[in-house]
Amino acid sequence: METQANIPPLALAEIPPGHLNIMGYIDQSEVNGPGCRAVVWVQGCPRECPGCFNPDSWAFEVNQLISVDAIAENILSNPNNTGVTFSGGEPFAQASALAAVARKVKAAGLNVMSFTGYTLKQLQSKSAPPGAQELLAELDILIDGPFVQSLAVNSPISPVSSSNQNVHIFNPAFQDQISWASDQIEVHVLKDGDRIVTGYQGWLELT
Length: 207
Ligand code: SF4
Known about the structure:
Elements: H1 9-13, E1 19-29, E2 37-42, E3 64-67, H2 68-77, E4 83-87, H3 95-107, E5 111-115, H4 120-123, H5 132-136, E6 141-144, E7 166-169, E8 185-189, E9 195-199, E10 203-206
Parallel strand pairs: 2-4, 4-5, 5-6
Antiparallel strand pairs: 1-2, 1-3, 6-7, 8-9, 9-10
Helix pairs in contact: 2-3
The chain binds iron/sulfur cluster.
Iron/sulfur cluster binds at residues 45, 47-49, 52, 54, 57, 88-90, 117, 146-147.
């Protein structure tokens, strides 16, 4: 039976309107979706899946607050970004703000993909988190379902990390583009010297 995860409302109340609470951000990733993309990792996930690649993203506490306008400007300021991927954490815990980001970058011609620990069926149900329909309406690609360690996929060419997850292609233009280099790992060096390691299985590590 599918179970819904509860998102703590008090934690989300600390996020000012028109803002996101994120864990990390990079430009020009080629291992988090088709083409060259920005990636936004949101802070906060209610699932605590054993074997999760980003356990530091679980806590619903303020990490980096950034306005929708500012993050959209960041994404669009790098001409090499052809799209953006929302990861986490649980993107649908901040669905309305991400939908607003998506609308801004799509208006400039970029595409939008999201991971989620919910199933698409849950996101389409009456008990979906607030803003779920709004965000779904903007997505070109959705990869749904939580990571299940006993169903882990160890193929480096798989776009999913456990076999219960599904790739939903809402925009037919991406039908033959589910072939990003998921077997590679990228190291991004940020302006402040921090490094973000990302790649196979959506891994994010801050060092
Ligand atoms: S849904 Fe994703 S981010 Fe959340 S605990 Fe599971 S694997 Fe980690």
